[in-house]
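Continuing the series of single-chain predictions for the mutant panel. This is the parent chain; the variants come on the following pages.
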Amino acid sequence: MVTLVVGIDNAMLSGNIIIPLISVVLGVIIGEAINIQKGLDNFASWLQAWVAKRSKPGQEGDFDSARERFINGFVTASLVFCIGPLTFVGSIQDGISGNYELLAIKAVLDGFAALAFAASLGIGVSFSIVTIIVIQGGLALVGYLAGNIMTDDMINEMSSAGGLLLIGLSLILLDIKHPRMANYLPALLIAPLIVAVGRWLGIDVYPNF
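Parent structure:
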């Protein structure tokens, strides 16, 4: 439920909800085409097999069940921890100014969340640290290279699109529906790109209705 509430709150950051909606539609088309979910699942499966080889026989119970639980825990935790506004704003801020305060706050919050997730989703949650390092490190690098190119509007639209993805993730956590949420990730790149292209073309992406 918390993920759902946070997702709705983040989605409201948009100055024009059409932007994140278009981003999600285009994002899932791209994501389905290149099948990001399959790649993430395969990586999680490889990690699970690596862990299983170093575990005592029978320690993880039935292999197929353990494998499914590991993948679910890894993918779900990776997405939850990597698409919140603190990830975007904190990582980019760190890259631009070297200020890691927001990332420190996020680390504490994620630590408590990880304990809750691990209780229900298993050891796969702990391996989401790999994804977090890659995503946050990549965003910090983007912030460093982009400098002041990323405006507040671009970050807000990225966070809003992330909020919509969190709403989708909440459906998985509540066991209501199981969409392939990793395939929606390109939306996070498309949202700020729409703002940038709109400004470049002189289009008012925030019209007064």
